[in-house]
Amino acid sequence: MKYFNLPFNDFEGMIPSEGIFKNGSATIVEGNNKLCGGIPCLDDNTESRTKPKPKSKPKGSLNYQIKVMGFGDALLTQGTLENNSNDGLSLSGFNDWSGSGTCPNVTPAKLSLTFCHNADAQGAGSKGGVVYTVGNGGIKWVIAWSNMQNDENKVYVDITDTAVDWSAVKSSLENSSPNPSAVTKNGYTTTATIDANKNLPSFTATLG
Q1: What is the number of domains present in the chain?
Q2: Rounded to whole angstroms, how far apart are CA atoms 102 and 87?
Q3: Residue 11 has pLDDT above 50, yes or no
Q4: Which of 16, 8, 55, 64 shows the shortest CA–CA distance to 32?
Q5: In angstroms, how far is CA 50 from the centroid of its own chain?
Q6: If we measure between CA atoms, which residue out of 124, 143, 146 comes closest to residue 196?
Q7: Do the Cβ atoms of 121 and 23 come closer than 8 Å?
Q8: How does residue 200 score in pLDDT terms, banded at 50, 70 and 90?
Q9: In Å, how far are 12, 47, 88, 183, 191 from 208, measured between CA atoms?
Q10: Cα-based distances in Å from 99 to 57, 67, 83, 173
């Protein structure tokens, strides 16, 4: 079993950590404040913990509070892809700069799907990018996110009809913000937003 997804069910008790649960890469328990066991117990105060302001701690320092949502010490980023267009999306590229994860292979028209991207083993953060081909044409939707230690979270989106240059995407991401401007190209519009300072942020990228 790869993911143990239990958000907002008001469960309580111990989460198993042996058997099929031992090899899980992420346990999502938001909204179940009485669960504990496989991960540290979560409470309402944990939800509001945020990253320190940039430059308040040197790179490599990890002496601030961290909410853990998975086995081990890894942080993660949760992404939601909202396809409000009339065309289906098919995964055509993925890049892990820091951490690892999987994205939906297909996102049908008028549907939203969620995925998780785990941080690297050192807990330095989660940074990645994904590309979807829109419909049967040559249009591509580019989404990238950055959730790095002691740095403001960022997200970047674009629409292109050319080959994706990952170096350029990474550079644009690093110069982006938590709420970049909408992009309109090739008959589509994309927007995105990410929690600016949370250690376990959620981002939403929309195509319409």
Answers
A1: 2
A2: 22
A3: yes
A4: 8
A5: 16
A6: 146
A7: no
A8: confident
A9: 39, 31, 11, 11, 9
A10: 22, 17, 25, 16
Report the alpha-carbon distance of residue 8 to residue 5 in Å, rounded.
10
Domain containing 155: what range?
A: 76-207
* One domain for residues 42 and 85: no
Which of 118, 121, 132, 105 minimizes the C-alpha distance to 200? 118
Report the amino acid identity of residue 169.
V
- In whole numbers, what is the pLDDT of the chain averaged over residues? 77
Q: Are residues 131 and 185 in the same domain?
A: yes
Checking if the pLDDT of 180 tops 90, the result is: yes
Helices then strands, each counted (H, E), the chain: 2, 15
**Where residue 183 sits, what CATH number does that domain have?**
2.60.270.20
Answer yes or no: is pLDDT of 51 > 60.
no
In whole angstroms, what is the distance from residue 77 CA to residue 123 CA?
A: 12
Q: pLDDT class for 3, splitting at 50, 70, 90?
A: very low
Instruction: Check residue 76 and give its pLDDT.
Output: 84
One-letter identity of residue 1: M
- Residue 53 within any structural domain of the chain: no
Strands 111-118 and 3-5: unpaired
Q: Is residue 41 over pLDDT 70?
A: no
Residue with tokens 């991401």: 173
Instruction: Give the Cα separation of 41 and 28 in Å (integer).
Output: 13
Q: Are residues 32 and 114 in the same domain?
A: no
Is the pLDDT assigned to residue 197 strictly greater than 60?
yes
